[in-house]
Amino acid sequence: MSTLPTYEKVGYAMGDAAANLVWRGALAYLAVFYTDTFGLTAAAAAMLFLVVRLSDGVTDIIMGMIADRTSTRWGKFRPWILISTPFLALFMVLCFTTPDLSDQNKLIYAYVTYIGLTLAYTLNNVPYSALMGVMTASDTERTSLSGFRFAGAFGGGLLVMGFLPDLVAYFGAGDDSKGYQYSMYLFAAILMALMVITFVTTKERVTPTIDQSSKLSTELKDLFKNLPFIILPLLATTLFFYYRNLYSAAFFFLVMALMWFVIKRLINQDTTSISRTQRDMVDLLTNKPWLILLGMGFLTMMFNGIKYGVIAYYFKYQVGDELMAGQYFVALLLVSILGALSTSYLSKIWGKRNLFIISLLLSGLLTAGFYWVPDGNIVAIFSLGCAAEFFAAMMPTLFFSMLGDSADYSEWKNGRRATGLIYSAGTFVQKTGGGFAGALVLVVLAGYGYDGMDSSTIAASLPGMKLLLSWIPAGFAFAGVILMLFYPLGCRQNQEIGEELAKRRNTLAPA
């Protein structure tokens, strides 16, 4: 298992630097843009975030299936990165454009452009994430590559999160709607340049056997027949999350009980009597490491997404210095780069599973400490935030590296490898977690009476902002600690699985 050249790791990292101009950067300001500049109510924006995430449940899985069955001279995944880049840049700009429309038409515009952005991101990031799983067969190299990736991700986020408030003030000269739009023109150009670097510098080396027993069109039809089993749990969760009443709770538990019955029946069926799409689902549903990672992806995105989603509000209203939010983001993201790059080294000492637990526990405790920080104590805010972020940065780095391990486990156990599907589920659950995190921020603020266009509502919402920066996200970190205790793959198991798969591939390789 050869070592990847440094230039290729850096080139791969540029792709997530580009994607995180959108994901970690622009979307960190989207909620406050919608409520304070675009003119949506907090409740309407929360519902927007939730509804749009429902579409991701379908599109991510479809994209994973398509990518797994793509075969070109550039590979399975790299061509999609290049094709999707112009659309991602376009919708990034459109999402932060404020047209002269009625309130109702503005809401429609926000739905159309935000859905467009998530679709473009799916086309780009599902193949990009899966690319890590085929660049190398070494689990230790994947951890190193994941560290480079998230160093790039945090660097890309730093550009937007650190400098967007100042750029909005510079380009807008008092007109925030103009300032946001012109700033996005700049970031869109940077995004396209970085994505091209990733396409040119990376190479796909792991080439699993392609199952040609059925056509993609047939499998997509099969997928759409099974859509209710994907959409219903998401719909039930969304309704329960948003309305939180007896009816939504009853619907949620009814749907979950039905899904449990259907899944148990599907797993117990003879695999020769079901379609390939259903076999893929059975492989995933019997893959314990993947199932645990699916939960971890959601919990860690809730943890990180809530913290990042409330920062702009916290500094604008609790601290009283809106531009300082940019400085805080810069500090967090510089520490994040160090945390991401430290992950590979620390995982060799403690193992991925143990390091994940340590990072969740320490970051959760430090985040909870925000509850006792006195208002306006900038030194305490920056110190506590940076300390928590160092460990939080390890979470996505470990998550995507361990998804590759779960793909190895699936191939070792079942003789089949659906790298794109495994990673698409990972990106989907992260995007779902991010959507729910952004919505939860707005739901809590709306519960405290917040209205971004009415300054008289601000004082009553300040306690909610403090909870959103402390105990609420910390609760998701502590839940992650409990879940991670059940993760079954350690260093020895990963090494044994990797060696066994290498032997199988060598046996099947043409002489």
From TrEMBL:
InterPro entries the UniProt entry points to:
MFS_2, MFS_trans_sf, Na/Gal_symport
Q: Which CDD domains match?
A: MFS_MelB_like
Q: Where are the transmembrane segments?
A: 38-56, 77-96, 108-126, 147-164, 184-202, 223-243, 249-268, 289-315, 327-347, 354-372, 378-400, 421-448, 468-487
Kindly state which keywords UniProt assigns to this record, in alphabetical order: Membrane, Transmembrane, Transmembrane helix
Q: Key word Methyltransferase present in the record?
A: no
Say yes or no: keyword Transcription present. Answer: no
Question: According to its UniProt record, which protein family does this protein belong to?
Answer: Belongs to the sodium:galactoside symporter (TC 2.A.2) family.
UniProt-recorded name of the protein: MFS transporter
